[in-house]
Amino acid sequence: MRRGPRPKPSIIRDMEGNRGKKRRNRSEPEFPPADPMSPPDWLNEVARAEWLRVAPVLGKVGLLTVVDVTALAAYCACYARYREADECLEANGTTFTVRDDKGVVKGRWPMPEVGIAVKMLDKVRQFAGEFGFTPSARGRIELDKLGGGDVGEMETDELERERQELARLLEETPSRSRKRTVQ
User: Fold this and answer.
1) CB of 112 closer than 8 Å to CB of 56
2) Is the dihedral of CA 113, 119, 122, 123 positive or negative?
3) How far apart are CA 104 and CA 180, in angstroms?
4) 6-44 burial by CB neighbour count: b if 16+ within 10 A, else e?
5) How far apart are CA 43 and CA 75, in angstroms?
6) Taking the CB of residue 151, how many other CB atoms lie within 10 A of it?
7) Has this prediction a pTM greater than 0.85?
8) Per-residue pLDDT in tens (0 to 9) along the chain, 183 residues
9) Rounded to whole angstroms, how far apart are CA atoms 149 and 144?
10) Helices 112-131 and 69-92, interaxial angle, to 10°?
């Protein structure tokens, strides 16, 4: 098992500026870019909406290749699962009362969705760091060194189409909150 921090992909190292002057991996494989507007079919509506929000930006800066699709889809799926658990917690609260056979209160237990939300939010944070979605990860990236332009340079009608698609998907997404009755 390898010790120390994981090696960074060359594209990320180039964006960060290679401050430590570490030798670049010349034999790192290069993969073709992926289509950012084609989320995997198995993603649910919330996950697809998140894909359509972040994938075009990743594609613009060269961080979305055909082999990155699964990792981005996993990020989107974790985000959707977190949202689902959070909606359930909003609707039903974070705890439930446990009673014995005679109806005597034995205690209060956390809802299972609390654990799901915590785990999924941690996974979202991990994936976000991998793709540079966090402020600290973004702070290390210098797009000018890669030759990429400002993400804000995307065509305004392209952004408007993406916003409309996202709004349509969010409107069509049914609330997955379930009422729970616990005795």
Assistant:
1) no
2) negative
3) 19
4) eeeeebbbbbbeeeeeeeeeeeeeeeeebebeebeeebb
5) 11
6) 12
7) no
8) 667 766 666 666 666 666 666 666 666 667 788 888 889 999 999 999 999 999 998 888 888 888 889 999 999 999 999 999 999 999 999 999 999 999 999 999 999 999 999 999 999 999 988 887 877 666 666 555 444 445 554 445 555 565 566 556 556 655 444 444 444
9) 7
10) 150
Beta-strand runs (E) in 11-167: 95-99, 105-110
Place of tokens 């990236």: 141
Residue 111: count of CB within 10 angstroms of its CB: 18
The answer to whether the CB of 46 falls within 8 A of the CB of 85 is no
Cβ neighbours, 10 Å, residue 154: 15
Confidence (pLDDT) at 32:
81
30: nearest Cα among 65, 75, 74, 80: 65
Q: Is 182 exposed, middle or buried (0-12, 13-18, 19+ CB in 10 A)?
A: exposed
Q: pLDDT value at position 134?
A: 77
